[in-house]
């Protein structure tokens, strides 16, 4: 502890150089943080998918419908606790770049399926009372400036209404749901009964089923039992855990995770040699001083430790500030207009970042520290 | 003026010749800048490759007709009679009596990706008999063309490379239908090469679609006939369609992903660049410090402040140039032509493409390296030029 002022003084010896190195480390860890944010955003919620939820879709592809009449049959399968369903509506608000994704659902069972979507009870009641009602996530409402009571026109594409101009669907915004930072708050949910009654064709069809199981350890058997029910029918099904579905989508997008990790590795490697260079320069400048300290009887191990601690301190201060700024940026929310609904920096990645900062400091300091330790007093003093 | 230039060149050459004496410190700047350029070029080559694949499918003398308001084939639908009306539009190329137009259906089937073994959305396109006149660049390179009226299919080159069970002789099952693969086609490396083609009428039956389609792709007399073609179609009271040039359609489909990749690529490059500039500043300051005696001696001999400043900048730019060239070369060797596929959200299906490290990207990378070198060398250069001669010489 008594050496802290010494380390601090050494860091401040060349304020300009220390500042530049600190800034370089800060920027690198800010970038590291942002890369991890992107990795999570692109993996599409694989980490947060519920373990007790299954998703059942048409065996050919998720784009093909399933009959709504399957619902009671799924409900009768053992280990099934709750069943609901959802249909992608595929409508356009103003123009396609607004990225509004609408789903037709059954309000009560859907909200029971996703208890992480927090909707005030009064708004839930309003939704149940209004067939044309819709609810949206907090992020979406903020992005498009929607308020409760707004009337929202959506252009149907493959879903066309029977009445009106044959294109436009009108919804009343009756609720705005919220949730913690891991929850997708960009969905637009409206009532399936309103869709099914008013669309031209496709009556009695839904997109996919969501199933909550009582015992998650038996999820695989339950999924197999459900699929067996509909084998050889004209709508065969494929049931898997929500996690497996999310993973399969992430795989389809491509291995963004690996790309992000590769970039992060390059970034950290560059910052490592910059930091090592700084430490080497500053230790070499101090050759005299180190020799004098040795002459006064400072043990080799202590000098090694002092240099290492100095290096680690620099790296950790820079790293922590960088991660902190990355965190601040995520508080601002998704900057891509709805492309990346999950935009947050997980605690796990913050811890990994800090660990990497400590490692960076140790590695950058090793060579200069060993140099300081091995310094021969006579050589060093004579060299001057 | 001449002596000024000569001075500047001489001093710069001296500083460049002494780089080996400061090798480890100089390497820091070179590696830092090279790293930034590798990442910058590699990330942007994803966007370039995707754009190239998407846009090479589109021609200005072909028009795609979909239902009004549809932003992609996925969300479009056209009745059989509508497609007959569309084929009568003026400006359509004719092959004898027949309009050179293909009424098509676009659906998605699940196939496993070879690389990961996991399911992927693969586009299955039902095409009409004149498809090879509509798309003359589509060439069967293995096997033969499908026979219309049967459940035969031909597979695009990229789809064949990416997905399991798509070789000639394989059977592709989707629901109750089985497609026999009889040929492999190429289409100038475009997005169509990720598709599987079959007879649209067989596909209608298999998917219970009756006599409905999703789009009509028509070949025009010439690119200039487009306006007349479009005006005629959009003023027909019996149909509600939107008409786009094929080239524009694919351009708009690629925009979302390309701009996302560019935003991420530039963002990463700017942040990394700041780090690398700091690294270069540290390197150049160290270089100026170790050369204090030399610089002061030169100044004492009568060399001007500006040539000294330019020499430090010159050294920094040379290091940046080496770093930039190294980074560009590594990106080219490591990533150019790397085959992958991703989801095209507009069509909700896979698009196979190759990373494209284009000359324009390499030049962009090199320019960025020089900017980093210039910014990194500027303050150290000013400091070197301002060095008080007597003090500097006394210090040593």
Report what the structure shows.
- The complex is a heterodimer of chains A (384) and B (396).
- Chain A is of the alpha+beta class and 384 residues long.
- Chain A folds into two domains: 172 residues, no CATH class; 176 residues, no CATH class.
- Chain A is built from 14 helices and eleven strands.
- In chain A, the strands form two sheets. Chain A has a nine-stranded mixed β-sheet with strand order 6-7-5-8-4-3-10-1-11.
- In chain A, helix 2 packs across helix 12, helix 10 runs parallel beside helix 13 and helix 11 packs across helix 14.
- Chain B is an alpha+beta fold and 396 residues long.
- Chain B folds into two domains: 191 residues, no CATH class; 171 residues, no CATH class.
- Chain B has twelve helices and 16 strands.
- In chain B, the strands form four sheets. In chain B, strands 1, 5, 6, 7, 8, 9, 10, 11, 13 and 14 form a ten-stranded mixed β-sheet that branches. Chain B has a two-stranded antiparallel ribbon with strand order 2-12.
- In chain B, strand 5 and strand 6 form a beta hairpin.
- The model of chain B has no long low-confidence stretch (mean pLDDT 90).
- Chains A and B meet through helix 2, helix 9 and helix 10 of A and helix 2, strand 5, strand 6, helix 8 and strand 15 of B.
């Amino acid at each position: 502890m008594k050496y802290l002022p010494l380390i601090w003084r050494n860091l401040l010896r060349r304020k300009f150089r220390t500042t530049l190195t600190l800034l370089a480390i800060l920027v690198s860890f800010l970038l590291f943080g942002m890369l991890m944010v992107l990795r999570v955003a692109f993996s599409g919620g694989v980490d947060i998918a519920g373990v007790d939820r299954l998703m059942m879709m048409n065996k050919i592809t998720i784009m093909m419908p399933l009959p709504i009449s399957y619902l009671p049959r799924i409900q009768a399968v053992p280990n099934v606790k709750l069943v609901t369903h959802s249909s992608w509506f595929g409508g356009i608000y103003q123009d396609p770049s607004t990225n509004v994704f609408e789903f037709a659902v059954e309000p009560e069972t859907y909200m029971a399926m996703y208890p992480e979507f927090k909707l005030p009870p009064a708004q839930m009641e309003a939704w149940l009372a209004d067939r044309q009602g819709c609810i949206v996530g907090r992020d979406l409402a903020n992005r498009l400036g929607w308020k409760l009571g707004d009337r929202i026109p959506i252009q149907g594409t493959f879903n066309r209404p029977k009445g009106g101009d044959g294109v436009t669907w009108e919804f009343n915004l009756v609720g705005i749901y919220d949730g913690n930072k891991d929850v997708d708050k960009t969905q637009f949910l409206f009532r399936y009964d309103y869709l099914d009654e008013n669309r031209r064709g496709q009556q009695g069809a839904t997109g996919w089923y969501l199933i909550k199981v009582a015992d998650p350890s038996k999820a695989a058997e339950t999924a197999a039992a459900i699929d067996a029910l509909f084998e050889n029918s004209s709508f065969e099904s494929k049931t898997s855990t929500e996690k497996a579905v999310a993973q399969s989508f992430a795989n389809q997008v491509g291995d963004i995770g690996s790309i992000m990790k590769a970039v992060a590795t390059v970034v950290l490697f560059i910052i490592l040699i910059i930091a090592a260079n700084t430490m080497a320069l500053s230790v070499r400048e101090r050759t005299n001083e180190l020799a004098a300290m040795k002459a006064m009887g400072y043990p080799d191990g202590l000098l090694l430790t002092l240099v290492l601690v100095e290096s680690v301190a620099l790296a950790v201060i820079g790293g922590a500030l960088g991660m902190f700024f990355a965190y601040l940026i995520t508080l601002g929310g998704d900057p891509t207009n709805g492309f990346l609904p999950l935009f947050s920096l997980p605690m796990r990645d913050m811890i990994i970042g800090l660990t990497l900062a400590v490692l960076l400091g140790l590695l950058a300091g090793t060579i200069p520290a060993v140099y300081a330790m091995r310094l021969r007093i006579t050589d060093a003093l004579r060299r001057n | 003026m001449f002596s000024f230039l000569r001075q500047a060149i001489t001093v710069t050459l001296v500083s460049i010749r002494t780089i080996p004496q400061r090798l480890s410190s100089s390497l820091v700047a070179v590696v830092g800048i090279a790293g930034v350029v590798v990442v910058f070029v590699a990330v942007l080559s994803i966007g370039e490759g995707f754009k190239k694949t998407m846009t090479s499918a589109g021609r200005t003398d072909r028009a795609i007709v979909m239902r009004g308001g549809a932003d992609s084939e996925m969300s479009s639908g056209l009745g059989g009679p509508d497609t007959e009306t569309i084929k009568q539009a003026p400006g359509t190329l004719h092959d004898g009596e027949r309009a050179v137009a293909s009424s098509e259906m676009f659906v998605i089937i699940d196939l496993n990706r070879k690389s990961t073994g996991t399911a992927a959305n693969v586009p299955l396109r039902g095409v009409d008999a004149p498809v090879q006149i509509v798309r003359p660049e589509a060439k069967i390179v293995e096997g033969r063309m499908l026979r219309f009226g049967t459940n035969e299919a031909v597979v695009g080159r990229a789809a064949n490379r990416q997905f399991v069970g798509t070789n000639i002789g394989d059977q592709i099952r989707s629901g109750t239908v089985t497609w026999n693969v009889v040929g492999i086609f190429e289409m100038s490396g475009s997005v169509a090469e990720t598709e599987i083609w079959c007879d649209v009428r067989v596909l209608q039956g298999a998917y219970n679609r009756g006599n409905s389609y999703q789009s009509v792709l028509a070949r025009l007399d010439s690119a200039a006939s487009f306006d007349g073609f479009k005006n005629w179609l959009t003023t027909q009271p019996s149909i509600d369609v939107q008409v786009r040039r094929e080239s524009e359609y694919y351009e708009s489909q690629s925009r979302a992903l390309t701009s996302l990749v560019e935003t991420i690529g530039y963002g990463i490059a700017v942040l990394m660049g700041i780090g690398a500039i700091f690294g270069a500043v540290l390197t150049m300051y160290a270089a100026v410090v170790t050369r204090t005696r030399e610089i002061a001696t030169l100044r004492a001999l009568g060399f001007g402040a500006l040539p000294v400043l330019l020499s430090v900048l010159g050294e920094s730019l040379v290091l940046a140039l080496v770093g930039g060239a190294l980074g560009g070369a590594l990106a080219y060797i490591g990533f150019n032509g790397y085959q992958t596929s991703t989801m095209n959200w507009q069509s909700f299906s896979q698009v196979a493409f190759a990373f494209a490290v284009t000359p324009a990207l390499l030049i962009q990378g090199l320019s960025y390296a020089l900017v980093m070198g210039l910014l990194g060398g500027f303050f150290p250069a000013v400091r070197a030029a301002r060095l008080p001669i007597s003090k500097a010489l006394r210090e040593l």
